[in-house]
Amino acid sequence: MADPIIEITGLVNAFGNSVLHDHLDLEVRRGEVLGVVGGSGTGKSVLLRTIVGLNRPRSGRIRVFGEDVTELDAEAMRAVQMRWGVLFQDGALFSNQTVAENIQVPLREYTRMSQSLMNEIAVLKVSMVGLPDDAANKYPSQLSGGMRKRAGLARALALDPELVFLDEPTAGLDPISANQFDELVRDLQQSLGLTVFMVTHDIDTLRATTDRIAVLVDRKIKVGTIETLVHDPHPWIHEYFAGVRGRAALAQSG
Q1: What is the pTM of this model?
Q2: What is the rounded CA–CA span in Å between residue 155 and residue 235?
């Protein structure tokens, strides 16, 4: 097994008296695609946001690249952030900036590159995610939902990260666009050697892209594959993986 790139130990996330995660433990292995699923209100996106430092946990330890990100000062945290990229829901692009300018945001934030070099990188990332060349000069409002997702992914890849976080990457896409995005994620993961932490509700995406699946239930987490989780006795897990869509996904996976 590959060494863990993310190690979560005893994580507690709570808002007031509402506890989302109660001493949750999870490891994400270097080079794998880990899918994170769970019912409404289980805190899938909260978990992602906590790992990347946008939510402060009540207690617990989160180590990324061997560093405890809950204890780092601002300078050390910036160094870690340069090694990951994040695709938020619907791309989360800045509406008043072109796709190229959006891609250049992390380059401006974390580096001192020349404008000409940033322009070259933006063109490269646009091509890398399968967007047409002219998309670089378009604004998010001029793009389809699928193209906005790809533009957001291009921005997440701007700094050539080792680790990529994807939050509901296929939500709102039609089945064809979702399948194409799944293929893009898997191709990029394999060609670039990425580790991918992906929050999703789409079982077809899990089948097409993931190596393992982490399921949030009862404020804890269970990890397995579609083939193993389909036999799990927990009611929600069984319904999700052994229901009609789950059985169809399992059949497609062979």
Answers
A1: 0.93
A2: 39
pLDDT at 41 over 60: yes
The CA distance from 105 to 90, in Å, is 17
Q: Which two tokens stand for residue 194?
A: 């990425």
Tokens 């050697």 found at? 193
**Among candidates 76, 62, 59, 98, which has minimal Cα distance to 197?**
62
CATH number (3.40.50.1980, 3.40.50.2020, 3.30.460.10, 3.40.50.300) of 1-83+165-171+184-254 reads: 3.40.50.300
pLDDT-based confidence at 195, cuts 50/70/90?
very high
Q: Residue 244: what pLDDT?
A: 56
* Other CB atoms within 10 A of residue 180 CB: 16
Domain extent listing, the chain: 1-83+165-171+184-254, 90-160
pLDDT in tens, 224-253: 998 899 899 999 999 999 875 655 655 655
Interior/surface letters 13-41, b for 16+ CB within 10 angstroms, e for the rest: beeeeeebbeebebbbbbbbbbbbbbeee
Judge contact between 140 and 148, C-beta under 8 A.
yes
Q: What confidence tens digit (pLDDT) does each residue in 149-186 have?
A: 999 999 999 999 999 999 999 998 999 999 999 999 99
